[in-house]
Amino acid sequence: MKQNSNQTTERWGIRYTGIVQGVGFRPLVSMLAHSLGLTGFVYNDSQGVYVEVQGFLGELQLFLDAVQEEQPRLCRITSQTVQHLTLNMHESNFVVQASPLGESVSTFISADTAPCDDCIKELQQDKRRRDYPFINCTNCGPRYTIIKSLPYDRERTTMNEFPMCEDCKAEYEDIEGRRGRRYRAEPNACSRCGPQYTLYKPDRKAVDTVNIWNTTRELINEGSIIAIKGVGGYHLVCDARNDAAVQRLRKRKNRPHKPLAIMVGTLDMAIELVHINDVELDILTGMERPIVLLEKNHNSSVHLSSYVAPDNRMLGVMLPYSPMHEVLLPFDAAWIMTSGNKSGDSVLYNDDQAFNELGEVADYFLVHNREIYAPLDDSVVVVINNKPRFIRRSRGYVPEPIHCDGLEQTSILAMGSDLKNAFAMNKGSEVLVGPHIGDLENISTHETLEWTIKRYKSLFSVQPDKIIIDSHPQFFSSRLGEKIGESFHLSVVPVQHHHAHIASVMAEHNLRGLVLGIAMDGTGYGPDGTIWGGEFLLCKGNQYQRLAHIHAAPLPGGEKAVSEPWRQALWYIRNYYGDDIPFVYQEWMKELPKGWEILDKALQSRMPMIQATSCGRLFDTVGALLGLGMVHSYDAQIAIALETLCGDEKGSLLTYHYDGHILDFTPTVQSIMDGVVRGECRAHLAASFHKTIAIALCETAADLMERYNISDAAMSGGVFQNRKLLEFIYRTWHIGNLYMNEAVPSNDGGLALGQLWLGNQL
Known about the structure:
alpha/beta, nine-stranded mixed sheet, 23 helices, 32 strands, 32% helix, globular
């Protein structure tokens, strides 16, 4: 009689790599092995998860298939390899073994995620965990912010300070309990043994309260500002419907105009406040729970303070993303939920520092006693042309790697930029883009950047072979890169800012042939000694050639012109009208800051000034000429107001010149000024500007792609976060393939990915 091959006993050694630690992978493997009657063991190690499993061939194949089909919610398997081993005849069961230590780590970890549906149900109904703000399971909860080192086990997290009670320990060890959701769930805890919240006054005296949640809600309803310690740091929270509270928060935080994000208690409240399409809904309710920029519903019956997001059609909205939020927020809540820091600093996460720096900002502090090991700011996403685009990639997405084909085994550290800094390093083809650090103007962000780079190197066992920096010699990120290179005897390679922007798109989409790069940005250091920011680049591999650019205009006062757009606007007025300035702009000049006359005389003297081909500055200037502001209190403030001014206007095509090398928008600006003088609708003029820029970019791209036989174009740079502009571009584009950033922001937050991709080829 012939033996059934499925009844042959074998032993397999199986290696899984990817995001397989801290996601319930070992519990799944253990449960499947038990259910199929297999013996063996599983453990986390430096490379991922290793399994040895023994049994009939048919069950082994079923096991292999089931792992792939039933992989946990947060799991990302990147490879599975099987090795045939010698049978172990002394084995009688399947066990989870301790993680071996001391090896170089080559695995990844999951991002922190919102509570799963099962945990939310328990939060509302379960006796042991009802209203417990640290509920979690293998399918959800904190990861990046609590992990100190790998392999991922409780003793290497900040939960090690909280020994499990008997009930939690029984869950942790019970393979059958609640379908295994807490079997080997490392942050497992309950109200008896886990972290707790306490309400404090700014002097750190605890508030005596019967119900901490009711008291906090009452304080917010009464107009108080609360500093709340969450998953990755502190938030400053107040009622978004209370004008006085919002104004007080703005004044104390020194954030006079920049839009503030809100958290709503339920999806129904979000739907009442903003318009949401299907793509936006998926992102808003996804496990990452970023802030989503959504168009305001001006017919809403809910009053929201006009100070939340002034001069902006969009509102940053997020749903509760931690159990604490689920417990604290009423269903009808619309609360400001902004980063707990003073404007421009890194998000605060250390308790002592939070009390010291926010003591004059917050009226109360809601603080938990679990250490946040790594700070993490909220992610921000906007949907354009039915595709999600990152404004900021951080909580919910970091530190999950971005796969880029073609990266060699060389490990690279790319430093990013000084604005919206995020660094990147790679392990083979997997790129680890760091969290949003912020603008490197302040010492706090310097320290956060240095600490986070060291943490990534340690956590993921990365030892860079070279450092890539921005070519701007004054960037702190560049100087820090040089310092790291000197300390470890590594080569430090500068790359041009806008080339790196385009390379970030090439890296994402694996563009290997000729690419037309369209980089529309604020300002970047040009190799010719001028400031670039409106470039058409011929790119292939690590090489680029500047084919065309928008016209050059001076930046009166140098760096001051970036934050004070009136300076360049005044140049356009003088350049066009000379001494015969129309009345409307004579009135405009009366609103200029004190001392403007000195600059005006310099403009008329034709003294040499720094020249810039910056598209970002052009948007700022037109906004200033349309009366939308003279000085920025936050990055791109006037450009955002210009986009908002467009409303639903279609606009008209204005005059521009293109000679095959220079795309000159000077006539466009002059047409807008003439329109202002004639008293034309400013919304129509703003829309016409957007439309003209879009058409001119598309026509210039078409000409260059035909002349140089290019099929693929890549667009990147902060200007392309403008929804109105992109809508016009998508309607106008008519030649070749158009690619944009999707995995990283198109602003400087995505720059490091491009730097790293270029560095791999240098």
